[in-house]
Amino acid sequence: MKDRVVLVTGAGRGIGRAIAEGFAGQGARVAVTARTRTELDQVALDERKLGGTLLPIVEDLADPAAPSPLFSAVAKAFGRIDILVNNAGVGSSIPDRGPGSEQPRPIVEFDDDFWDLTLTVNVTAPYKLMKLALPGMIERRWGRVINISSINASVPALHGAAYTASKHALTGLTKVAAIETAEQGVTVNAICPAATRSALNDRRIRYDTDRLGVSIEQFERGLTPLGRRLEPEEIASLALYLASDGAGTINGQSINVCGDKVFG
Prior knowledge:
Order of helices and strands: EHEHEHEHEHEHHHE
Radius of gyration: 18 Å
Mean pLDDT: 88
Strand content: 5-15%
Distance between the termini: 33 Å
Number of domains: 1
């Protein structure tokens, strides 16, 4: 990955941070974006220790206008984007709206604003960033787009209409982009993790354990045949492979990372 230019969205923590650290450790120039400056500063500090070149950019992809200045900032600093990792996402829980607001809802009670937010971050932002990054990749006849989807692109999340719909849409977008750019040396793939340890997934876990009346430990043991949640680094390793020259014939795929559980 030496000297490759990578943009990782939602890189302040969890899967995005692990992916960014993986690329930095292999000598890439990595632009990382998230909503929180303090998280990005810590990521930048840790990644520089790995020897990578880091560009932290604070942007909130809930703002429909955010992709354009984000792309421009990376292009100004590094000249191009070789690898785009669309990781930023909204889960099936509603954050930061007061006590009890984190609970998911059935469709008949679903929060319309949360629906709009989820589709904006999970689908529209990746679409806009791909639209900005793909022309340069096509011109150079090399590029990688890696969309972080979910097993819920195959199976529904109870009381998670927006999340499930958005991940189905993201994998569909992945397939269309893949067939449109395959002859130009660009690959577009999606990674579909099962439950992965993160602050985002923690909220969903709390909802399900409260709903079912079980402990977190009991619930986690049944999430995968491994008897645990996945770790962000286990997703990052696949992202690094898909971005490599050796993965040039893997295209338009939605790859489950789920500990051998069968999803769709």
